[in-house]
Task: inverse folding
């Protein structure tokens, strides 16, 4: 696990030009989800204006706005816009992963010819997108498991207070909650490992998912610890960067607000850039673990093996 983390971190550092592209994909998520919120804001504002024109005052405007926002047609349109934004962002993220992971895989394997990001995004987008959809379903299954465990604990603990062994019941509930949280994290890591394997090796989504499942079942603690370790390191890096910059900006708090807006925005942008690099590090480390070593980059269509040389004619 330690070697995978070190090797993937070195590959991300050498191919650090990929991080700004990941930052752009992360920023596009908010832009693609913005139409749903703009639509709801426009509907609420128009309904409030109608309420004020009807003479209902502030209370009437609020009632009209609430009635408009809870309309089934408005909710359906907003849900469609939100879902379309999420799907489009998921496709962009899959294209970024499909292009970036082969570059990191070539760096990890030491291949002399390194593929370009556009070729990976073009050839491996389909398998990566299908693996990402399967990973999203696994993540939802994990969240459902945690929610079901929480509901069961909420229903069981009040009844256990009057039982003869409340401590034993609490211990069992705590163990079930811990197991559910671990399984949910393992399912999420399994989906990410399948995506990373499909992008780094060029396998199909089925082969990538089955291969990642076998590797995760063989070393579940390594995968979970890698995901948690990278997430912790990324959180510490981003918080340290923003905290240090905040302390530096605190020395000039007497400056006008419009002058501080630019450096504060740059600090947040730098934090998002570090987060994008950490995401690359996590995917590269999971790819190394899912492939059982340094990934060997494959061409989009593997060439057939070379034919053996013709046998020499027997001499007379």
Result:
């Amino acid at each position: 696990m330690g070697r995978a983390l070190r090797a993937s971190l070195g590959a991300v550092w050498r191919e650090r030009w990929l991080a700004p592209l990941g930052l752009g994909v992360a920023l596009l998520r908010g832009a693609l989800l913005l139409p749903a919120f703009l639509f709801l804001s426009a509907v609420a504002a128009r309904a409030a204006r109608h309420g004020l024109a009807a003479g209902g005052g502030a209370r009437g405007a609020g009632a009209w706005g609430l009635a408009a926002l809870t309309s089934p047609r408005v909710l359906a349109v907003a849900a469609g816009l939100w879902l379309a934004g999420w799907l489009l962002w998921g496709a962009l993220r899959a294209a970024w992963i499909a292009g970036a992971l082969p570059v990191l895989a070539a760096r990890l394997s030491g291949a002399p010819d390194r593929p370009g990001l556009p070729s990976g995004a073009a050839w491996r987008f389909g398998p990566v997108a299908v693996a990402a959809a399967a990973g999203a379903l696994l993540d939802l299954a994990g969240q459902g498991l945690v929610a079901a465990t929480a509901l069961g604990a909420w229903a069981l603990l009040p009844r256990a207070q009057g039982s003869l062994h409340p401590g034993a019941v609490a211990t069992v509930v705590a163990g079930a909650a811990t197991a559910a949280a671990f399984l949910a994290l393992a399912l999420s890591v399994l989906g990410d490992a399948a995506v990373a394997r499909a992008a780094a090796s060029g396998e199909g989504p089925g082969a990538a998912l089955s291969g990642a499942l076998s590797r995760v079942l063989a070393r579940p603690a390594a995968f979970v610890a890698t995901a948690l370790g990278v997430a912790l390191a990324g959180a510490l890096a981003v918080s340290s960067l923003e905290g240090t910059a905040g302390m530096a900006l605190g020395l000039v708090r007497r400056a006008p607000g419009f002058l501080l807006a630019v450096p504060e925005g740059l600090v947040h942008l730098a934090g998002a850039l570090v987060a994008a690099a950490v995401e690359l590090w996590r995917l590269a480390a999971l790819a190394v673990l899912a492939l059982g070593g340094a990934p060997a980059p494959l061409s989009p269509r593997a060439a057939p093996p070379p034919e053996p040389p013709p046998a020499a004619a027997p001499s007379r």
